[in-house]
């Protein structure tokens, strides 16, 4: 899906690896399974007769709503990953994210202070990495997750070289 309001014309977006869906699902499982289990604890205590409050309907409703919400977020993960993209232009790097709340960020090469790569245990196992761009502005939270490790290393070197060339020209 293309949104004319935020996508510059003529851009060919590079997409992240589809393996990144697995990374996001592991993150989802770690966060949501624990949350639903904690929220289901009052239900277990009510059914065991140990606790009289909350009422049964409330003890069922809270974890049920949390579970439905978690499953909705799980269903969105593949689409969210497909929405992540980047494009190298002459003067800047464009990064695009989001389905409902879309964002296209342009990071000028001359503003980059350093570029680093982060790898978590699941990413490492899948041969992926996250490229992080640091500028003088703390509001620039530019990162490209789900890159194949070789592409991340290439991009890091390419962006660092372009950044130094732009700074030297100032």
Automatic annotation (TrEMBL):
Keyword Nucleotidyltransferase: no
Keywords (A to Z) from UniProt: Membrane, Transmembrane, Transmembrane helix
Keyword Acetylation: no
Domain YdbS-like PH, first and last residues per copy: 82-159
One Pfam family here: bPH_2
Bilayer-spanning residue ranges: 29-50, 56-76
UniProt-recorded name of the protein: YdbS-like PH domain-containing protein
Organism name: Pseudarthrobacter scleromae
């Amino acid at each position: 899906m293309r949104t004319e309001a935020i996508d510059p014309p003529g851009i060919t977006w590079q997409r992240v690896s589809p393996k990144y869906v697995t990374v996001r699902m592991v993150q989802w499982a770690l966060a949501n399974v624990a949350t639903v289990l904690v929220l289901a604890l009052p239900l277990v205590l009510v059914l065991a007769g140990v606790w009289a409050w909350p009422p049964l309907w409330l003890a069922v409703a809270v974890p049920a709503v949390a579970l439905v919400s978690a499953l909705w977020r799980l269903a969105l993960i593949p689409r969210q990953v497909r929405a992540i993209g980047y494009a190298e232009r002459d003067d800047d790097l464009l990064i695009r994210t989001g389905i409902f709340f879309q964002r296209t960020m342009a990071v000028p090469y001359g503003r980059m202070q350093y570029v680093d790569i982060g790898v978590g245990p699941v990413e490492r196992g899948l041969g992926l990495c996250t490229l992080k761009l640091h500028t003088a502005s703390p509001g620039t939270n530019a990162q490209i997750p789900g890159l194949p490790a070789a592409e991340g290393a290439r991009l890091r070197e390419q962006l660092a070289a372009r950044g130094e060339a732009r700074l030297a020209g100032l």
